Amino acid sequence: MVFKIVAGIGAFAISSIAFSAVTLSVPEEIKIVAINDQEIGTNFLRSNNKIKLNAGMNVISVRYSGYYQHPDNSHDILKSGVVTVKTPALTDGNNYSLALINPPQDFDQAEKYKDEPIIGLYDQNKQLLVQQAGAKASKSWLSSVFSDSDTLDATQIPPQAHQPAPIYTSQTTQATLNSNVSTQTLIQSWKHATKQERQAFMTWLAEQSN
Protein backbone atom coordinates (compact mmCIF):
# COMPACT_ATOMS: atom_id res chain seq x y z
CA MET A 1 0.00 0.00 0.00
CA VAL A 2 2.89 2.37 0.76
CA PHE A 3 4.22 1.80 -2.76
CA LYS A 4 0.80 2.59 -4.23
CA ILE A 5 0.54 5.83 -2.28
CA VAL A 6 4.07 6.91 -3.15
CA ALA A 7 3.72 5.98 -6.81
CA GLY A 8 0.34 7.61 -7.13
CA ILE A 9 0.96 10.79 -5.20
CA GLY A 10 4.72 11.27 -5.41
CA ALA A 11 4.81 13.59 -8.39
CA PHE A 12 1.82 15.50 -7.07
CA ALA A 13 3.42 15.96 -3.65
CA ILE A 14 6.75 17.10 -5.05
CA SER A 15 5.07 19.67 -7.27
CA SER A 16 3.19 20.98 -4.24
CA ILE A 17 6.38 21.42 -2.23
CA ALA A 18 8.23 23.31 -4.96
CA PHE A 19 6.96 26.56 -6.40
CA SER A 20 5.15 25.63 -9.58
CA ALA A 21 4.54 28.39 -12.05
CA VAL A 22 3.16 29.10 -15.49
CA THR A 23 3.65 32.16 -17.67
CA LEU A 24 0.61 34.12 -18.79
CA SER A 25 0.88 36.64 -21.63
CA VAL A 26 -1.51 39.57 -21.38
CA PRO A 27 -2.06 42.11 -24.19
CA GLU A 28 -2.22 45.84 -23.52
CA GLU A 29 -5.98 45.96 -23.97
CA ILE A 30 -6.55 43.52 -21.10
CA LYS A 31 -5.82 44.78 -17.58
CA ILE A 32 -5.35 42.37 -14.67
CA VAL A 33 -7.41 43.41 -11.64
CA ALA A 34 -7.00 40.46 -9.27
CA ILE A 35 -5.69 36.91 -9.12
CA ASN A 36 -7.51 34.40 -6.93
CA ASP A 37 -9.49 37.26 -5.36
CA GLN A 38 -6.29 39.07 -4.33
CA GLU A 39 -5.96 42.60 -5.70
CA ILE A 40 -2.68 43.10 -7.50
CA GLY A 41 -0.56 46.12 -8.36
CA THR A 42 0.07 47.20 -11.93
CA ASN A 43 3.57 45.65 -12.01
CA PHE A 44 2.85 42.52 -9.96
CA LEU A 45 5.10 39.73 -11.34
CA ARG A 46 4.80 41.41 -14.73
CA SER A 47 7.51 41.82 -17.35
CA ASN A 48 6.81 42.76 -20.96
CA ASN A 49 3.12 41.99 -20.54
CA LYS A 50 3.80 38.60 -18.94
CA ILE A 51 2.89 37.49 -15.44
CA LYS A 52 3.63 34.41 -13.37
CA LEU A 53 0.83 32.29 -11.92
CA ASN A 54 0.81 29.18 -9.79
CA ALA A 55 0.24 25.98 -11.71
CA GLY A 56 -3.23 24.49 -11.28
CA MET A 57 -6.55 26.29 -11.31
CA ASN A 58 -6.65 30.08 -11.00
CA VAL A 59 -9.32 32.76 -10.91
CA ILE A 60 -8.23 35.79 -12.93
CA SER A 61 -10.20 39.04 -12.81
CA VAL A 62 -9.57 41.35 -15.77
CA ARG A 63 -11.16 44.14 -17.71
CA TYR A 64 -11.00 45.41 -21.27
CA SER A 65 -9.36 48.80 -21.79
CA GLY A 66 -9.17 50.44 -25.21
CA TYR A 67 -7.40 53.67 -26.17
CA TYR A 68 -8.78 55.54 -29.19
CA GLN A 69 -7.28 58.63 -30.83
CA HIS A 70 -9.72 60.81 -32.78
CA PRO A 71 -8.98 62.93 -35.88
CA ASP A 72 -9.14 66.14 -33.82
CA ASN A 73 -6.34 64.75 -31.57
CA SER A 74 -8.72 64.13 -28.69
CA HIS A 75 -8.90 60.63 -27.29
CA ASP A 76 -11.09 58.27 -25.30
CA ILE A 77 -10.21 55.40 -23.00
CA LEU A 78 -13.00 52.84 -22.87
CA LYS A 79 -13.05 50.47 -19.90
CA SER A 80 -15.30 47.50 -19.32
CA GLY A 81 -16.60 46.00 -16.13
CA VAL A 82 -14.59 43.24 -14.49
CA VAL A 83 -14.58 39.83 -16.18
CA THR A 84 -13.61 36.89 -13.98
CA VAL A 85 -12.02 33.96 -15.82
CA LYS A 86 -11.88 30.64 -13.99
CA THR A 87 -9.06 28.66 -15.58
CA PRO A 88 -8.80 24.91 -15.95
CA ALA A 89 -5.76 23.26 -14.35
CA LEU A 90 -2.69 24.99 -15.82
CA THR A 91 0.39 22.81 -16.39
CA ASP A 92 3.62 23.75 -14.63
CA GLY A 93 6.17 25.30 -17.00
CA ASN A 94 3.72 25.91 -19.82
CA ASN A 95 2.84 29.23 -21.43
CA TYR A 96 -0.68 30.60 -21.72
CA SER A 97 -2.20 33.79 -23.06
CA LEU A 98 -5.29 35.91 -22.68
CA ALA A 99 -6.89 37.55 -25.70
CA LEU A 100 -10.05 39.36 -26.71
CA ILE A 101 -12.50 37.28 -28.71
CA ASN A 102 -14.08 39.21 -31.59
CA PRO A 103 -12.21 42.40 -30.63
CA PRO A 104 -13.61 45.75 -31.79
CA GLN A 105 -12.12 47.29 -34.93
CA ASP A 106 -13.10 50.89 -34.32
CA PHE A 107 -14.39 53.27 -31.65
CA ASP A 108 -18.08 52.66 -32.36
CA GLN A 109 -17.63 48.91 -32.02
CA ALA A 110 -15.55 49.39 -28.87
CA GLU A 111 -18.29 51.42 -27.19
CA LYS A 112 -20.57 48.39 -27.49
CA TYR A 113 -17.86 45.84 -26.81
CA LYS A 114 -16.93 47.35 -23.44
CA ASP A 115 -20.41 46.55 -22.15
CA GLU A 116 -19.95 42.80 -22.67
CA PRO A 117 -16.36 41.89 -23.59
CA ILE A 118 -15.36 38.28 -24.23
CA ILE A 119 -12.02 37.07 -22.86
CA GLY A 120 -10.34 33.89 -24.11
CA LEU A 121 -7.62 31.81 -22.47
CA TYR A 122 -5.29 29.97 -24.88
CA ASP A 123 -2.57 27.38 -24.34
CA GLN A 124 0.89 27.53 -25.90
CA ASN A 125 -0.43 25.74 -28.99
CA LYS A 126 -2.94 28.56 -29.56
CA GLN A 127 -5.81 26.27 -28.61
CA LEU A 128 -8.74 27.97 -26.88
CA LEU A 129 -9.27 26.50 -23.40
CA VAL A 130 -12.08 28.67 -22.07
CA GLN A 131 -13.92 31.83 -23.00
CA GLN A 132 -15.75 34.10 -20.59
CA ALA A 133 -18.17 36.86 -21.49
CA GLY A 134 -18.56 39.79 -19.15
CA ALA A 135 -21.75 41.19 -17.70
CA LYS A 136 -22.85 44.78 -18.09
CA ALA A 137 -21.58 47.03 -15.32
CA SER A 138 -24.17 47.67 -12.65
CA LYS A 139 -24.66 51.20 -11.32
CA SER A 140 -23.48 50.21 -7.84
CA TRP A 141 -19.88 49.81 -9.01
CA LEU A 142 -19.90 51.57 -12.39
CA SER A 143 -17.89 54.56 -11.21
CA SER A 144 -15.18 52.33 -9.76
CA VAL A 145 -14.83 50.38 -12.98
CA PHE A 146 -14.48 53.50 -15.09
CA SER A 147 -12.03 55.26 -12.79
CA ASP A 148 -8.47 56.01 -13.91
CA SER A 149 -7.04 53.33 -11.63
CA ASP A 150 -6.09 49.96 -13.11
CA THR A 151 -6.84 48.17 -9.85
CA LEU A 152 -9.98 47.63 -7.81
CA ASP A 153 -10.60 46.65 -4.25
CA ALA A 154 -11.70 43.02 -4.00
CA THR A 155 -15.07 44.16 -2.64
CA GLN A 156 -15.67 46.08 -5.88
CA ILE A 157 -15.33 43.01 -8.09
CA PRO A 158 -18.81 41.87 -9.14
CA PRO A 159 -19.91 38.34 -8.23
CA GLN A 160 -19.16 35.68 -10.85
CA ALA A 161 -22.83 34.68 -10.73
CA HIS A 162 -23.66 37.88 -12.64
CA GLN A 163 -21.63 36.67 -15.62
CA PRO A 164 -22.77 34.29 -18.34
CA ALA A 165 -21.51 30.75 -17.80
CA PRO A 166 -17.97 30.12 -19.07
CA ILE A 167 -17.51 28.01 -22.19
CA TYR A 168 -14.83 25.32 -21.88
CA THR A 169 -13.52 23.26 -24.78
CA SER A 170 -14.10 19.50 -24.77
CA GLN A 171 -10.33 18.99 -24.37
CA THR A 172 -10.32 21.13 -21.24
CA THR A 173 -13.35 19.33 -19.81
CA GLN A 174 -11.73 15.92 -20.30
CA ALA A 175 -8.48 17.06 -18.69
CA THR A 176 -10.41 18.36 -15.69
CA LEU A 177 -12.30 15.08 -15.38
CA ASN A 178 -9.03 13.11 -15.52
CA SER A 179 -7.56 15.37 -12.84
CA ASN A 180 -10.59 14.82 -10.60
CA VAL A 181 -10.34 11.04 -11.05
CA SER A 182 -6.63 11.08 -10.12
CA THR A 183 -7.34 13.16 -7.03
CA GLN A 184 -10.09 10.81 -5.89
CA THR A 185 -7.79 7.82 -6.41
CA LEU A 186 -5.15 9.40 -4.17
CA ILE A 187 -7.74 10.21 -1.52
CA GLN A 188 -9.03 6.64 -1.50
CA SER A 189 -5.48 5.25 -1.24
CA TRP A 190 -4.86 7.44 1.79
CA LYS A 191 -8.16 6.50 3.43
CA HIS A 192 -7.42 2.78 3.14
CA ALA A 193 -3.80 3.01 4.29
CA THR A 194 -2.85 1.79 7.77
CA LYS A 195 -1.30 4.06 10.38
CA GLN A 196 2.15 2.57 9.69
CA GLU A 197 1.73 3.07 5.94
CA ARG A 198 0.72 6.68 6.43
CA GLN A 199 3.71 7.31 8.70
CA ALA A 200 6.03 5.73 6.14
CA PHE A 201 4.59 7.93 3.43
CA MET A 202 4.89 11.09 5.53
CA THR A 203 8.54 10.20 6.22
CA TRP A 204 9.16 9.84 2.50
CA LEU A 205 7.34 13.11 1.83
CA ALA A 206 9.49 14.97 4.37
CA GLU A 207 12.63 13.63 2.68
CA GLN A 208 11.54 15.10 -0.67
CA SER A 209 11.51 18.63 0.75
CA ASN A 210 15.14 18.43 1.89
UniProtKB/TrEMBL annotation:
Keywords: Signal
Keyword Nucleus among UniProt keywords: no
One Pfam family this sequence matches: DUF2057
InterPro entries per UniProt: UPF0319 (IPR018635)
Residues of the signal peptide: 1-20
Family membership noted in the UniProt record: Belongs to the UPF0319 family.
Protein name per the record: DUF2057 domain-containing protein
